[in-house]
Design goal:
Layout lengths: L21 E4 L5 H12 L3 E6 L3 H13 L4 E5 L5 H15 L4 E4 L15 H26 L6 E5 L3 H4 L5 H20 L6 E7 L13 H5 L13 H12 L10 E4 L6
Parallel strand pairs: 1-2, 1-4, 2-3, 4-5, 5-6, 6-7
């Protein structure tokens, strides 16, 4: 990508907010997931990152986490598959003996001009990655989250869940589902003291963008925000730290908007 996304947030100083916690991050090999992994490590957490197929990117994220002085494992596979999600959580427990934070972040999107252009198999694929996986990962992680205090689930939604997107109908639908899932799950898990929240990023400069849109769209990406530019992954990650830490101990069922000033 040109320019390269910014992940490491050199201006961010850790203060042990997540000391000795263990976090699972799906879609952690690049984009927002990578930036979150780095800041979680800077705050003292060990991290397990999930990814679909890009070994090089996953190893890069692992290196950046370990550079922060924490441990990291990478788990390759399709989170749209329930069995893989169960294996992912078990590998994390085998490596670190606990789970404190689950970040459901994996996503895919495919631009289509009209609803008639969306093939059935593509529709199912998008829903499996973007919302089925959130259910599967949560189901697998719950027994481990219940064992500890101050455990949290953070879901990645999107600004499009609130304002829509004319050529991302299926993606937008899944992000709306994530918002509702977050609100309902927070109520369902309230008695277990597991907090559930979401972050809804606006236009963030990640590899998903040039892989999804044509050159003209990419050129103007994010320019229609109040700030007038796309955001960087490192600018979204602190919201995840807040929701994972005791700073947000009285916050559940909420959505934090990091979108450059878009009114929703």
């Amino acid at each position: 990508m040109d320019p390269e996304p910014l992940y490491s947030a050199e201006w961010y100083k850790g203060s042990d907010k997540l000391k000795d916690k263990v976090a699972i991050i799906t879609g952690g090999d690049s984009g927002i997931g990578r930036a979150v992994a780095i800041l979680f490590a800077r705050e003292g957490a060990d991290v397990a990152i999930g990814y679909l197929k890009n070994d090089k990117d996953a190893e890069k994220t692992k290196h950046l986490v370990e550079k922060e002085g924490r441990k990291c494992i990478t788990v390759k596979g399709d989170v749209g598959c329930k069995k893989h999600c169960e294996q992912f959580v078990q590998q994390t427990v085998d490596a670190f003996h606990r789970v404190d934070i689950l970040v459901n972040n994996a996503a895919e999107q495919h631009e289509r001009e009209t609803i008639e252009d969306i093939p059935e198999e593509s529709l199912e694929r998008t829903f499996r990655t973007n919302i089925y996986s959130y259910f599967f990962m949560t189901q697998a992680a719950i027994p481990h989250l219940k064992k500890h205090k101050d455990t949290t689930i953070i879901n990645t939604a999107s600004v499009v869940a609130f304002k829509g997107h004319e050529t991302l109908l299926d993606y937008t639908s899944t992000k709306g589902a994530i918002v509702s899932f977050t609100r309902a799950l927070s109520q369902n898990l309230g008695e277990n003291k597991i907090r559930v929240n979401a972050v809804a990023p606006g236009p963030i400069w990640t590899p998903l963008i040039p892989s999804s849109f044509d050159a003209e769209h990419v050129k103007n990406f994010g320019k229609n925000t109040t700030i007038g530019r796309p955001g960087q992954p490192e600018e979204v990650a602190p919201a995840f730290v807040y929701l994972a830490s005791k700073d947000s101990s009285y916050v559940t069922g909420e959505v934090i908007h990091v979108n450059g000033g878009t009114s929703v």
